[in-house]
Amino acid sequence: MQLSNKNSTIPAWHNLLAYPDFAIDALHRTSLFWQIEATHPFYVAKQLDNHQGISLSNAYHQPVILQNGTLGNRLFLKENKTYTFYITYQSPIKLIVGLYTVDEHNPLIFWRLNPNDTLTTWQQTFTLSQTIERKSLQIKILVGDTQLEEVVIQSIAIIDNEPIDLPKIMVGIVTYNRRNYITTLLKQISQLVYPNEKIQVVVVDNASTDGSAELLAAEYPSVIVLRNHENLGGSGGFNTFFNYIQQLENPTTLAWLIDDDAQIDGYTLLNLVRAIQTDDEIAIAGSVMMDLENPTFAYEAGGHLYADQFGWQANLLKAELHQLNHIKDRLWKVGYAGAYSLLFKTEILAKAGIWHNYFLHVDDSEWCYRVQRTTGKKVVITLDSLIWHVLQGSRKPFTTLRYYETRNFLNYFAWYADKKVVAKVLLQCVRFAIRQLVIKRRDLCQFHLAGIHDFFDAHYGKQNLTRQCKIVADVKGIIDDYMQIKQRNPKIIFLVTEINDYVNDGVDYETLIIQAIRQYSPVSKIIITGFNITNVMVQQADIANNLSYHRNKYIRILQQLWKIAFHRQGIVILPFWNESIVANNLATLTAVYENGSYSLYWTQRFNLLTSLTKMSVQIIKWLAKTLFNKYNPSAAKANNI
């Protein structure tokens, strides 16, 4: 397989540029890998038909600069080593091509390319004698005044003259009722800039009922399908893949885990392989997660699990690629790499074993940590390898996952920390549960408590979890439920102004909610409520209620207790992510917006007191088990492999 340009003769896997071709949809200052820079607007840049390169025309005396260098397309070379530079171009004028260290104006080396009437591949061998260790380099192509004629650039490469032996790769994908996602991903895998004959795809079907297995058998005969008898989650699905590898007489040296709903480009795998081949001490190499809905936005690059508290510290980039030039490394050593795209050496399975039976969450993080402990090798993120994923983390309602994270994190600390840390994390989980209880979300409180209970009883795998709250489709459903219970329309409806930020899809949900309230309950007084209210929203409502917390800690606690005990008769509508005690307890009925619907929670003061009493008794029992040595770590670890 060559560069995506069909006319190129340059083997792409020898090219040290992470993204060498110009098969791009647009060329501008913030485009993904090749950017345009000019101090004037008198130029035209466009993509040629059939992704055959790009053309530039410049009608000004100042040059237009075409450059790479964003995260994911930087160049790392060694001094005193011989390389060959290739470029396929057509130009009516001389071009200047140079190699620069990032953020420096003077080139390390440059060449003048003569005009050519037809596409020509120019090449030049070179050696850099300057000290450039760990410095990322940029290629810049300076295009002068073309007198309105076009410069065409079709492909570009810098070749290490020592050939790379690319290994065979086994790709593991776990899917469950996602036939559209899996077909998209399989198509992208077939288009990788990597020898197709060196890739074997294995799909683990977690008992899908949407015809995924039949589709794979009919349209993808070369794909190996392993079918589980039930949905075993991510951990169970990947364990099926791991077990398959271990049963092979001659397994591949490398295997690639990837989410079935991830999307990749031609170089995602190639750059992972390059990274893991650069250092024998690397056991796992992961990719950078990009935002599928905003493809130039980098979100996360692995992270670390905390040593003594619940949760993890992700390396959140949260920036456009062109804003990340300050990152000088090609690899980051991390505590974990996400299984949305993770390449590993299959030999580590013999020492580290397979995943714990967590079903969801913490499984890949714990495994990465275990690999480092048992093998002494590293886990890294390859900043040149990118995958695209829908960033659901900020919008996805955190409901049943509370159970899995509570149970699985407690198990993680039972394996690797002492009893004091386990007790500390346990109290954190209890605190999470209490908070859900005091903001009325009793079903979410129960998920935390069930996770704690099953941790002590060593119940792992998938659990049957159901929401206890009533869920309605729209504002009419909220008002109907209120009228059914109270036998009257709500006098007051509080609307917390955060739903638009929560959904963040361009639709003005808050205005639509106000319109629906006017339609279905015109007698209700609408109070726009929030900590930062905009004037636009105030004009649409009857009253603006600006929330604030008192600066004094003790008065703030009293303020929260007052809201828990005394509510106004009415409704409060707010987004799922708002866990403010004050905002959630403004009215008798709380309607929580999540996934396009509303979860309804009624005030139950007596039940709140009873629940707190029961929870206190449970906490005392759990602490007794932990602090008085009645908690047996081996029991909590049992049956989770």
Explain this structure.
The chain has 641 residues and is an alpha/beta fold. It has four domains: 12-160, Jelly Rolls; 169-389, Spore Coat Polysaccharide Biosynthesis Protein SpsA, Chain A, CATH 3.90.550; 401-467 and 607-637, no CATH class; 470-603, Rossmann fold (3-Layer(aba) Sandwich), CATH 3.40.50. It is built from 17 helices and 28 strands. The strands form four sheets. Strands 11, 12, 13, 14, 15, 16, 17, 18, 19, 20 and 21 form an eleven-stranded mixed β-sheet that branches. A seven-stranded mixed β-sheet has the order 22-28-27-26-23-24-25, with helices on one face. The chain has a five-stranded antiparallel β-sheet with strand order 1-4-9-6-7, with no helix packed on it. Helix 7 packs antiparallel against helix 8. The model is unreliable at 1-8 (pLDDT under 50).
Q: Briefly, what CATH class of the largest domain? A: Alpha Beta
Q: Average pLDDT, to the nearest integer?
A: 87
What percentage of the residues does DSSP assign to strands (E)? 25-35%
Helix content: 25-40%
The count of domains is 4
> Which ranges are low-confidence, i.e. pLDDT below 50, for 5 or more consecutive residues?
1-8
Number of strands: 28
Structural category is alpha/beta
Give the helix tally.
Answer: 17
Quick overview of this protein structure:
This protein has 641 residues and is of the alpha/beta class. The protein has 4 domains: 12-160, Galactose-binding domain-like (Jelly Rolls); 169-389, Alpha-Beta Complex (Spore Coat Polysaccharide Biosynthesis Protein SpsA, Chain A), CATH 3.90.550.60; 401-467 and 607-637, no CATH class; 470-603, Rossmann fold. The chain has 17 helices and 28 strands.
